[in-house]
Amino acid sequence: MSETVTSQDQAEDQTGVEAGAETGRPPEDASRAERSSEDQLVREGDIAGDYLERLLDILDFDGDIDLDVEAGRAVVSVDGGKDLEKLVGARGDVLEALQELTRLAVQQSTGTRNRLMLDVAGWRSQRRSELTDLGRTAAAEAKDTGHLQRLRPMTPFERKIVHDAVAGISGVRSESEGEEPRRRVVVHPTEG
Predict the structure, then answer these.
(1) Cα(113)–Cα(24) distance, rounded to whole angstroms?
(2) pTM (predicted TM-score)
(3) Which residue in 18, 35, 128, 135 is a FRET match for 151, CA 20 to 30 A apart?
(4) What's the N-to-C CA distance of the chain in angstroms?
(5) Where is the composition biased (Basic and acidic residues) (predicted)?
(6) Kind and range of the H or E element at 6?
(7) Alpha-carbon span 156 to 39, nearest angstrom
(8) pLDDT tens for residues 8-33?
(9) What is each CA distance from 38 to 41, 155, 158, 187, in whole angstroms?
């Protein structure tokens, strides 16, 4: 099964709502709702931080926990300390599992699903940079050769970054194909 990712899909994935949707509320109510939403995200980050702090204590790992809100989601980073790479694992597999456990801990406390993002030892930010470069390189290759570029299988996090990188380049488009865990990005040249 092949899925084409459009900029609207990406915007909806990023915000969780249809891009450009009107709230239908007066500006002061919208502002209050935004503050409430921001407060909820800060609360999610605090709960996640407490959960991760207890986990680090159990594992006897040192690390500093930083909480932030970016792009409509709580972001928790664990930095410093020795042995943190063990919490990342090969290709981020342990990090993905830890992120899911942290999301479940937050959900159990708040009663609502969340889109919390977890980074450990700067792995996600470094990986984001590598994948952006990969997407741009694949796009340039597809454009120069006129042949599609099929990338190796990636996680949803990785694919989204590549799609975003390709979306900013004219003359190419990207789509995901295959089934998890073998789902991959394919970059196609477009006709001028």
Answers:
(1) 24
(2) 0.72
(3) 18
(4) 27
(5) 25-42, 174-183
(6) none
(7) 27
(8) 334 334 333 333 344 455 556 656 66
(9) 5, 28, 26, 36
Flag whether pLDDT at 76 surpasses 70: yes
The architecture in CATH of the region 23-121 reads 2-Layer Sandwich (3.30)
Burial of 73 (0-12, 13-18, 19+ CB in 10 A): middle
Is 61 in a helix, a strand, or coil? coil
What the block records as the tokens of 1 is 């099964």
Residue type, 191: E
38 Cβ contact partners less than 8 Å away, ≥ 6 residues apart: 69
List, in order, residues 6 or more apart from 124 with CB less than 8 Å away: 92, 95, 117, 118, 157
SS3 at position 163: helix
Question: What class is the 126-189 domain?
Answer: alpha beta
What are the residue ranges spanned by the domains of the chain? 23-121, 126-189
| Contact yes or no for 9/108 (Cβ under 8 A) | no
